[in-house]
Amino acid sequence: MPTEKAIRVLAGAMVLTSLVLAHYGSPKWLLLTAFVGLNLIQSAFTGFCPAEIVLTKLGITRGGCCAQSKTRD
C-alpha cells in the first residue's frame, strides 16, 4: 500500500476512534479529531507530514502506481 493511501487510512481511523471515544467517554477526545484535521491541512501546504515519516520507517512504500517511472525502449 502506498504511503499516501496509508496516511488516509490512518487519519480516518484516528478520527473515527476519537469520535467513538468522545461519545462513550469524554468529549475531550474531540481534540484528537481537531489535531488530525489541522495536521492534514498543514501537510497540504508545507509538505511535512509526521505520519509519513513514521509509516516510511515502518516499511510502507513511498509512492504508488504514478510514482513509478515509465520508460520506453
Explain how this protein is built:
By secondary structure, this protein is mostly helical. The chain has one domain (3-57). The chain has three helices and no strands. Helix 1 (3-24) packs antiparallel against helix 2 (30-46) and helix 1 (3-24) packs across helix 3 (50-57). The protein starts with a helix and ends in a 16-residue tail after the last helix. The model is unreliable at 66-73 (pLDDT under 50).
**Mean pLDDT metric:** 85
Q: What string gives the helices and strands in order?
A: HHH
Helix/sheet category: mainly alpha
Question: Helical segment tally?
Answer: 3
How much β-strand is present in the residues? under 5%
Question: Main beta sheet, described?
Answer: none
Quickly count the domains: 1
Which runs of at least 5 residues are low in confidence (pLDDT < 50)? 66-73
Question: In one word, what is the shape?
Answer: globular
Write the SSE topology.
Layout: H1 3-24, H2 30-46, H3 50-57
Short key terms for the protein model shown above:
disordered C terminus, 73 residues, 3 helices
Summarize the structure.
With 73 residues, this protein is mainly α.
